[in-house]
Each structure stands twice: as structure tokens, then as C-alpha cells.
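Hey, quick one: can you model this chain's 3D structure?
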Amino acid sequence: MLNLLTFIVRRQYDRVIGALSGTEAMSILQQSSPDVILLNLSLPDIGRDELRFIRQASHLRGTKVVVVTVSPDLVRFAQESMADRVLYKPFRASELLRVIQEMLAS
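Sure thing. Here's the predicted structure for all 106 residues.
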């Protein structure tokens, strides 16, 4: 799924960084300040702690967070944790790109 998302997003945007695990994502986020994060809370070892870290880290204050999920429980958590947007799986490439554009424009 990561390769497909990366391919789709790279068609429109130059710089795309992907992570396959929560550990890898946290390492990347400690060293960078992306404009938009797509966070799939359903993947192994990616969860609530990562979203909390993003919202509490001062260098990520302006970063928009789009939670990608199929789980109603995770949707509720994402909304309570101030995710900027929830993208429900399955979704179309055009929908993903539209959401990213909206996040960059706001």
C-alpha cells in the first residue's frame, strides 16, 4: 500500500517520504517537518502514540495530519486527537490528491 500511495502522490508533488512502521515514521518525524502527514493507524506498530507525538511536537505544529483508516474506533480517536482530516479506505487516487491539496491550501 505504501508504494502505491507514494507513486500516486509523487505524480503531483516532488518530495514524498514513506515509512513502513511506527518506529521508522517516528525517526523521520524527529528529523523533519513535513507539510502533510498521511497516518495509517491500522498498520502494525503505528498507533495512537504517533498521533499524540505529532500534535505535541513543537516543530510539527503547522503540519497537517490526515488519518487513513477503515476502523470506526480509530476515526473517533483521530477526531478526538485533532487530526485535520480522516480519509476512509478504500479511496480513489483523485480523492487522496484532493485531500492533500486542501491540506496544503489551508
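One thing worth noting: Residues 93-105 form the longest helix (13 residues).
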